[in-house]
Amino acid sequence: MTTPVQFTTFDGGTIDVDYIGNWVDIHLRAPNGRTVATVEMSVDDANHLIRQLEGCTPDEAEERYIEGYSDGYEAA
């Protein structure tokens, strides 16, 4: 078993990544530690997602969040 990887979000939450073979579990946690979502995906898909997240500065992420955008699509 590998050591989980953790990223901090602009609002103080975390993104925890647990690698399990060819799959990963991504746990999105609120600043208070509550798990908001858990997603299972392939390592390749997770690496692509992480690269996208890393390419966005905290200010850009906050601005997108406030404006209601995700990956260029307006929130419903």
Mean pLDDT equals: 76
Beta-strand content estimate: 35-45%
Helix amount, in percent? 25-40%
Broad shape: globular
- Provide the low-confidence segments as ranges: 70-76
| CA gyration radius, whole angstroms | 13 Å
CATH class: Alpha Beta
Structural class: alpha+beta
The name of the CATH topology is Viral Envelope Glycoprotein, domain 2
CATH architecture: 2-Layer Sandwich
Structural domains: how many: 1
Order of helices and strands: EEEEHHEE
Question: Which strands sit side by side, in order, in the main sheet?
Answer: 1-2-3-4
Multimer state: single chain
Compute the number of helices: 2
Strand segment count:
6
Largest sheet: 4 strands, antiparallel
Question: What's the N-to-C terminus distance?
Answer: 39 Å
Question: Care to describe what's here?
Answer:
This protein is an alpha+beta fold and 76 residues long. The protein has a single domain, classed as Viral Envelope Glycoprotein, domain 2. The protein is 29% helix and 39% strand. It contains two helices and six strands. The strands form two sheets. It has a four-stranded antiparallel beta sheet. It has a two-stranded antiparallel sheet with strand order 5-6. It is globular and about 35 Å long. The protein starts with a strand and ends with a strand. The C terminus is likely disordered.
